[in-house]
Write a structure and sequence with these properties.
Elements lengths: L11 E3 L6 H16 L6 H10 L5 E5 L5 E11 L2 E8 L8 H16 L6 E8 L3 H9 L3 E12 L14 E4 L6 H11 L10 H9 L4 E10 L5 E9 L4 E8 L8 H15 L4 E7 L6 H7 L3 E14 L2
Parallel strand pairs: 4-5, 10-11
Antiparallel strand pairs: 1-2, 2-3, 3-4, 5-12, 6-11, 6-12, 7-8, 8-9, 9-10
């Protein structure tokens, strides 16, 4: 690759061509591997992101010979709730590539934002580097929280879940219970600054996600049949990923979360899968990090989550 350390004017921000999907993925893998020692992005997930998101929500920064040295993609999780994932080739850090990508993402978020209400633009970076801090603070972001990726490498049969107090665990009835699970999830994630997800946005993002497996989607119901807990996961060639786990507030501290994890561990073990992974925010109000660690998971990676308030409520 040609390095143009002193010719930043030759770096071009543009929308990527459809055939550049593989080049974008290669940059993501390179960036994650350099910082984390492995890439957490799977090809199927990256490809699905391109299919689900309009071309106007993706950008690359390229050299004159069309080598991609920067890549970003913007997601709208709910009206006014935007997440930008941005990657910069390590040889081009400090040349304004990240600034261009952040500014492009913010301009697009402003064009898409609803006429009223709070608007947030968030982004994450692996590790805690001075260069990233300078980039984000320079663009008006502040640290919102820290995100930890936890893993479990199973070398022996996992614990068997022990359900009590009239609680039972079973596979979710899809699609009949989709809305009920969504209501459970939304009720369990009421935190300051979080924009509620509409059902019409949540359902396809979960059910159509790469690797979605209805046999890895459990719910917990009480003695009257109410849903009080849920966990859904997916598996790829590398690990089993816990997509989301939630317990209804009035049923917390009854072992539901731990037993849901044990249920997943059992299913993974029986299928020959040995690695389980999930992520959690440090500001999780339920102290989920402690629960996960007690269930055998250990911190593997650390991300910083940044936030810019584009418009106050």
């Amino acid at each position: 690759m040609t390095i143009i350390k002193n010719k930043t004017d030759n770096l071009k921000l543009r929308q990527p061509a459809s055939e550049e999907v593989e080049a974008g993925y290669a940059l993501v893998v390179r960036c994650e591997t350099e910082v984390l020692g492995e890439s957490l992005m799977e090809w199927d997930e990256h490809q699905q992101d391109w299919l689900d998101n309009p071309a106007e929500n993706r950008w690359v920064v390229s050299t004159p010979d069309n080598q991609i040295v920067g890549y970003a993609i913007l997601f709208e999780f709910a009206p006014g709730d935007f997440m930008l994932y941005a990657y910069v080739h390590s040889d081009f850090v400090g040349l304004g590539v990240g600034t261009q990508l952040l500014q492009a993402g913010e301009d697009r978020a402003r064009a898409m934002m609803p006429p009223t209400g709070a608007v947030y633009l968030r982004s994450v970076n692996a590790g805690d580097t001075p260069a990233a801090a300078e980039l984000y603070t320079g663009q008006g972001f502040r640290i919102k929280t820290h995100v930890f990726v936890l893993t479990l490498e199973m070398t022996a049969p996992p614990p068997v879940p022990q359900w009590q107090d009239g609680l039972t665990c079973r596979l979710a009835r899809i699609p009949e219970e989709n809305r009920a699970v969504w209501q459970l999830v939304e009720g369990g994630y009421v935190v300051p600054g979080r924009v509620p997800r509409e059902f019409e946005t949540w359902e396809p993002r979960v059910m159509n996600a790469p690797g979605f497996d209805p046999t890895l989607f459990w719910v917990v119901e009480n003695s009257t049949g109410e849903l009080v807990g849920a966990l859904y996961a997916s598996n790829n060639e590398t690990y089993t990923d816990v997509y989301q786990m939630v317990t209804r507030e009035d049923y917390r501290r009854r072992g539901i979360g731990t037993n849901l994890l044990y249920t997943l561990y059992q299913a993974a073990w029986q299928r020959g899968w040995r690695r389980v992974m999930l992520n959690v925010s440090a500001d999780n109000p339920t102290n989920a990090l402690s629960l996960y660690q007690k269930a055998g998971l250990t911190i593997q990676h650390h991300f910083v989550k940044w936030e810019k308030v584009v418009r106050e409520a």
